[in-house]
Amino acid sequence: MQTLAQTLANQAIPASLAQLLQTLASTSVAISNAVRRGALAGVLGSTDHENVQGETQKKLDVITNEMLKDALRADGTVRALASEEEDFPVVLGEHGDYLVCFDPLDGSSNIDINSLVGTIFSVLPAPQGDVSEQSFLQSGRHQVAAGYVLYGPATMLALTTGQGVQLYTLDPQSGEYLLTNPAVSIPKDTAEFAINMSNQQFWEAPMQTYIGDLLLGKIGPREKSFNMRWIAAMVGDVHRVLSRGGIFTYPTDNKNPQKPYKLRLMYEANPMSLLVEQAGGKSSTGYQDILDIQPAAIHQRVAVILGSANEVATCLEYHAVDYSDEPEL
Ligand SMILES: O=P(O)(O)OC[C@H]1O[C@](O)(COP(=O)(O)O)[C@@H](O)[C@@H]1O
Ligand SMILES: [Mg+2]
Ligand SMILES: [Mg+2]
Which residue range or ranges hold the Fructose-1-6-bisphosphatase class I N-terminal domain (predicted)? Predict the structure, then answer.
């Protein structure tokens, strides 16, 4: 089986990008080891700090953020980084071709129950001259690479450099990522959806109606039974979508009117959307392709609907309907 280094060597990408991706991969091996040792390494539980999003940081959120920051600083190819766990962009040096955005630990609420967690990353080109928050505000179409690492029963890396999606499995013996799927392809159709149903009362009319029709199964307008899954870690839900298809959504809701969306554009929605599009799927807010959004801030949040192309297209048809004349749901 090809190693990550061998596969990257066969792709038409700059040597500096291959080096950066190797650095991200080798840091994820160290993170995987820390996650696997769990309570033995004293890494479980919470800190008494909140991040910029007002969420209490888990110890592992902080540890993994520091590991990635240190590795990227030492790498020399990265000018600045933006992280879920950093209030502001962190400038790493005057040289380097890239900006990196990352969610060091996705699925934080799963840590203490020994369930799926991961790391998500997005690589953007660095502009000429000084870097600032403004430098990061590039649409997802500008990403030169994106990926995630899933710390599951096996540790797996999903990666795109714009040449399809490759899946690698970490060989714990050698510490190397080996290519286990050279061309991930998301089936166009599906009978599986992923949504946090506990928010149902807070959704807007299009999502209420769409999910309502899925739940009606064979006797509803879709005339087909659907199954539901929810891992509570985007990285796990998107991995299932890449592996066997499905539709994943974290839609707009009015639970907290100050925060109508949950997922973050720069280090969750954009990298996952590039992976999904590169694997033949589709990704939208309901009204716009996620990759076309012009970001306004590094911690901006968005509605996300992604997965099997035909099913996402069907969901978008519900968003094209005018519900204003219909009674409140
Ligand atoms: O708590 P909920 O509503 O199930 O939300 C789960 C979602 O929140 C997230 O865990 C947010 O990510 P973080 O753990 O990085 O904050 C997503 O991965 C996941 O899809
Ligand atoms: Mg996350
Ligand atoms: Mg996180």
Answer: 15-181
